[in-house]
Amino acid sequence: MKILSAAQIREWDQYTMQHEPISPIDLMERAAEACTHWILEHISQDIFYIFCTTGNNGGDGLVIARLLKSHNKQVKVFVLSLSAGTDCFNINLERLKQISTVEIITLKSTSDFPSIPNDAVIIDALFGTGLNRKPEGLAAELIHFINHTAKHVIAIDIPSGLLCDRSSKDFPVIKAAHTLSFQCYKPALLLPENAVYFGNVHILDIKLHTDFLHTVDTNYELVDFNFIKQLYKPRNAFSHKGSFGHALIIAGSYGKMGAAVLSTRACLRSGVGLVSAHVPSCGVTILQTAAPEAMCRVDRNEKVITKLDYDVTSYSAVGVGPGIGTDSATTAFLHHLLVAYPKPLVLDADALNILSEHSEWWPLLPPHSILTPHPKEFARLFEENKDDFARIETALQQARTKNLVIVLKGHRTFIATPSGKGYFNTSGNAGMATGGSGDVLTGIITGLLAQGYSSSEAAILGVYIHGMAGDQAALHYGMGPMIAGDIIDNLSVIKQLETV
Ligand SMILES: NC(=O)C1=CN([C@@H]2O[C@H](COP(=O)(O)OP(=O)(O)OC[C@H]3O[C@@H](n4cnc5c(N)ncnc54)[C@H](O)[C@@H]3O)[C@@H](O)[C@H]2O)[C@@H](O)CC1
Ligand SMILES: Nc1ncnc2c1ncn2[C@@H]1O[C@H](COP(=O)(O)OP(=O)(O)O)[C@@H](O)[C@H]1O
Ligand SMILES: [K+]
């Protein structure tokens, strides 16, 4: 699913009105009906305080007020008049005025702000995708007031004060428990810096014309189950273990053999034909016991990885980094690997830390190599960014210019590809914020690469499968108790992709 900018969303509204066709007022009614339906299904309270300005987001608020009233809810509407209302706002204001039991209060100064009962639900319909600058004056005061006073806030389309496709850092923004967003994710609803504002996001289908999506080009895509289903290649009945490649995982050091075990076991469960693990000699028994299906490449050094004394080019894919440390001998090993291996590598953890100390090595990275940094590793590799939008732009630019795939890990992991496109993942949960889950991801992506997926496909598919398995693990154990090994044990979720 494409992720659109504010301007493209406006074009989508226009396209729908022309091609369905449907009038603006009927489209607003349909959007507000979807919100009201959601509210009636999920919210048990009976008192609603609805805050609107005079744009179309406010118009949505007025329609929601009328519809909630028709379901016998107690409704009060507060209007902050910033400019002459839009046509749809004005028409709906007249319609609402016909209902004598709905009080409509105009907010002219802070003294008009109401006292809000504890059990009232606030509907935030101040600004939607039309916001184009920082709210100031009374609008800003109202946002602060709602944040300080109200307990249950539902934002319509986007929390007021958030820009759809640029950073709103330092803006006053409504803090919502739920955001009911129309038709598609807005970029702002996918970035961690805004998580405190949007709460739980629910995408409501308001039936915008799907043909529009064929006419529009976007930088960002959303990765969901349907997207992944198209990418996943079912196994041929006549296949043998040679059909699915041989992956090499280079991981572990004395005291950090768990990282090697997790990556190797995850790689084995990714569907790959064969897995070998290159580990320091202290780790052989650990690895062969914990992952007997894997073969071992034993380093001469007891504690760290030091020597590439075999033909590494025979492996279909290589993942390097989890738990290897940054010893000078390991650093020299990594340099040798970059020179010796011509196909895309998967680099994670300490491999990234070493790389960030050797910027002269960038040209040595095989084209389409996959880097999997978390935000701190990302900052070490590239630069500190002023906000999350700047960070994903940096990822896209670096992926394009360096011909790499960059997997920026987090709640909505962002995958920047050499084509210039960025993909937001939708699977996964906070239970995965636990030591070792990144090592699991490295194993999965390396296994997919070995099976013949392209780098971009392996990264997108791997991140999604990792999140799916994490979601399944959270169902079994709960987000608190789950550990990284549980993600591996739940990789059986891949079977959902195997069904036709
Ligand atoms: N027919 C349509 O186009 C539909 C629009 N819908 C709603 O309409 C919203 C967009 O409506 P609008 O484009 O009217 O804009 P909004 O209602 O989001 O914003 C109101 C107006 O405030 C002004 N403004 C922007 N930033 C401001 C600031 N910082 N301080 C003061 N004023 C500011 C702008 O002129 C803007 O038009 C969507 O988010 C959605 O809620 C939905 O009803 C679906 C259909
Ligand atoms: N809140 C979250 N929601 C979804 N996924 C998460 C969340 N927190 C962490 N993850 C995922 O877990 C993994 C953690 O990786 P990383 O930070 O490298 O951990 P480690 O170094 O402990 O292995 C990443 O794939 C990340 O996307
Ligand atoms: K809003």
TrEMBL record:
Keywords: ATP-binding, Isomerase, Lyase, Metal-binding, Multifunctional enzyme, NAD, NADP, Nucleotide-binding, Potassium. Residues 224-498 form the YjeF C-terminal domain. K(+) binds at residues 57, 124, 160. Its cofactor is Mg(2+); K(+). The keyword Cytoplasm does not apply. It catalyses: (6S)-NADPHX + ADP = AMP + phosphate + NADPH + H(+); (6R)-NADPHX = (6S)-NADPHX; (6R)-NADHX = (6S)-NADHX; (6S)-NADHX + ADP = AMP + phosphate + NADH + H(+). Residues 9-214 form the YjeF N-terminal domain. Pfam families: Carb_kinase, YjeF_N. (6S)-NADPHX binds at residues 56-60, 128-134, 157, 259, 323, 374, 439. Its EC number is 4.2.1.136, 5.1.99.6. InterPro entries: Carbohydrate_kinase_pred_CS (IPR017953), CARKD (IPR000631), Nnr (IPR030677), Ribokinase-like (IPR029056), YjeF_N_dom (IPR004443), YjeF_N_dom_sf (IPR036652). It comes from the Bacteria. Binds 1 potassium ion per subunit. AMP binds at residues 409-413, 438. The keyword Isomerase applies. Homotetramer. Bifunctional enzyme that catalyzes the epimerization of the S- and R-forms of NAD(P)HX and the dehydration of the S-form of NAD(P)HX at the expense of ADP, which is converted to AMP. This allows the repair of both epimers of NAD(P)HX, a damaged form of NAD(P)H that is a result of enzymatic or heat-dependent hydration. Catalyzes the epimerization of the S- and R-forms of NAD(P)HX, a damaged form of NAD(P)H that is a result of enzymatic or heat-dependent hydration. This is a prerequisite for the S-specific NAD(P)H-hydrate dehydratase to allow the repair of both epimers of NAD(P)HX. In the N-terminal section; belongs to the NnrE/AIBP family. Belongs to the NnrD/CARKD family. This is Bifunctional NAD(P)H-hydrate repair enzyme.
